[in-house]
Amino acid sequence: MFAAGSWDALAEHVLCSQHSSDLEAEDARCASDLLSEEEDQDSSSSHAQTKQAWWATLLEQHTKDQGFSIPKWQDPVALFSACTASFAEASVFKELGIPIRCLGTSEPCEAFREFAQSNHDADHWHLTMQDQIEDKPCTIHKDATSCCVVVQPDYLVMGTPCNPFSRQRNKRFHEKSVMQHELAQHTFTDAYLLLEKYEPPSATMEQSDGFSAPLHAGSDDSPLKRFLAGLDSRKFKHGHYVVVHKLDMKIWVKILRNRIWVNFFRRDLYSKQDVVRFSTILQALVKQQTNTEPIEIDELLLDTNHTLWKTELMRLEANSKRCPSSSDDGSGKEWRTQIAEWRDKLSVSSSYAPWDDLNLRARGLHITPRVQ
């Protein structure tokens, strides 16, 4: 598919240094926490196997259309996950039929951990990236002296908190706002330490699109540039080629979700040509999907008659009954009194409300790309 003689020139163009990049592309990896849970109601159907997720079917078809195929894997991929959330990467491997052994995860949110543990196995379930780096006991081995990974990971997937970089954050573009944010250390310290500790053959780091935005108003620098420059000062035995892709989930689902994907390829195992080939294939798949109509978000939601949906509505209704109401003569009355006092101090009319219901169309809310 590619002329071998053009690799060097193309490689130098794409990778002019160890940490070069900024390839413009769209999202070829979609968030698998949106996996469809449709069930086949026809028990007599000959299709007894579990239905493949809609995006996996599309991705495999695009791959075939481009002249490639997903190889049959014999040995499990040794996966290592940090800042795991719903463990989307494990779902992706599962849907594509690629066996994995997860060496470890980290996630401070208990609800996310419970969700991930209900669907996947892992050797260790840590709370934080710092705990992983320091080999501290994990949540399922609390009495252990330590929980360390004794197998070399094949692939590391990590995210770091996007709060410091998010365009939605108040004062995001004020001077020093990003680097002085309390969560910035996870990107500019913990991510480096994790890469140094394991030096995986390949790795991917996800961040919000604000990661590539100016560090502050009028700046030519960006958090992404700072991160890539910081790699040069770290102590790697082998080092990595680094390529950055700017991706957008809108080509898969009609939703606003831009992301930055930083991909690492260890220099002693991959060549520049390998990295260029990876980027070329990714862009081809993205182009293929761009020509496919994205689905509506409501197609991924449970039917309103589903048992889980009804159970959740009952839970919300029960919770709402415990909230203060106009008939309360206890804490509810005190709460309303405090609200009235604050409105008076701030000169806010007692009749003013930003919006009256969940359609977000009422007075006080400007029309934006998110509010149509």
Write the layout of secondary structure elements.
Layout: H1 7-14, E1 23-24, H2 54-65, E2 77-82, H3 88-95, E3 100-106, H4 110-119, E4 125-126, H5 129-133, E5 155-159, H6 185-198, E6 202-208, H7 223-231, E7 240-248, E8 258-266, H8 272-290, H9 307-321, H10 331-345
Parallel strand pairs: 1-7, 2-3, 2-5, 3-4, 5-6
Antiparallel strand pairs: 6-8, 7-8
Protein name: DNA (cytosine-5-)-methyltransferase
Keywords: Methyltransferase, Transferase
InterPro entries: C5_MeTfrase (IPR001525), SAM-dependent_MTases_sf (IPR029063)
Describe this structure in words.
The chain is of the alpha/beta class and 372 residues long. It folds into two domains: 4-31 and 52-300, Rossmann fold; 306-372, no CATH class. The chain is 31% helix and 13% strand. It contains ten helices and eight strands. The protein has helices spanning 7-14, 54-65, 88-95, 110-119, 129-133, 185-198, 223-231, 272-290, 307-321, 331-345, and strands at 23-24, 77-82, 100-106, 125-126, 155-159, 202-208, 240-248, 258-266. The protein has an eight-stranded mixed beta sheet with strand order 1-7-8-6-5-2-3-4, sandwiched between helices. The chain is globular, with a radius of gyration of 24 Å. The two termini are 44 Å apart. Mean pLDDT is 82; it is low at 1-49 and 356-368.
